[in-house]
């Protein structure tokens, strides 16, 4: 399993970023995919997940209405569109294979992460 995230960076409050995660080594369209983030102070926080065909999505309350998860199974890629970013969204964002709906206790089959910093 290989998951490679990209798209992180420095953005001002209120700005937007789009994260991408390209997957390989498994049947991508058979699996839910999730995004999880980690901050030094809050630990691991589940952000969102999407069903294998993209019909079902869920979001943590902290990002609901601001973030949108999507996927393109033809490209083995999952996305996280982040709008109206806040300083508290600053974290390392991980793409995760499988279904997460709560804060994980430990890492699983995840990518290497991409840093998102929201600051003026």
What can you see in these coordinates?
The protein is mainly β and 120 residues long. The strands form 2 sheets. It has a 6-stranded mixed beta sheet with strand order 2-10-9-4-5-6, with no helix packed on it. The mean pLDDT is 96. The protein starts with a strand and ends with a strand. The chain is 0% helix and 48% strand.
Annotate the secondary structure layout:
Blueprint: E1 2-6, E2 9-11, E3 17-24, E4 33-39, E5 43-50, E6 57-59, E7 67-72, E8 77-82, E9 91-97, E10 114-118
Parallel strand pairs: 2-10
Antiparallel strand pairs: 1-3, 3-8, 4-5, 4-9, 5-6, 7-8, 9-10
* Nearest-integer average pLDDT: 96
Major sheet: size, sense and barrel closure? 6 strands, mixed
Give the ordered list of helices and strands: EEEEEEEEEE
How much helicity do the residues have? under 10%
- Strand residue percentage: over 45%
* Cα-atom radius of gyration: 13 Å
Give the structural class. mainly beta
Which term fits the overall shape? globular
How many helices?
Answer: 0
Count of distinct strands: 10
End-to-end span in angstroms?
A: 37 Å
**Major beta sheet, strand line-up:** 2-10-9-4-5-6
Uncertain spans: none
Kindly summarize this structure in a few lines.
The radius of gyration is 13 Å and the shape is globular. The chain has a 6-stranded mixed β-sheet, with no helix packed on it. It has a 4-stranded antiparallel β-sheet with strand order 1-3-8-7, with no helix packed on it.
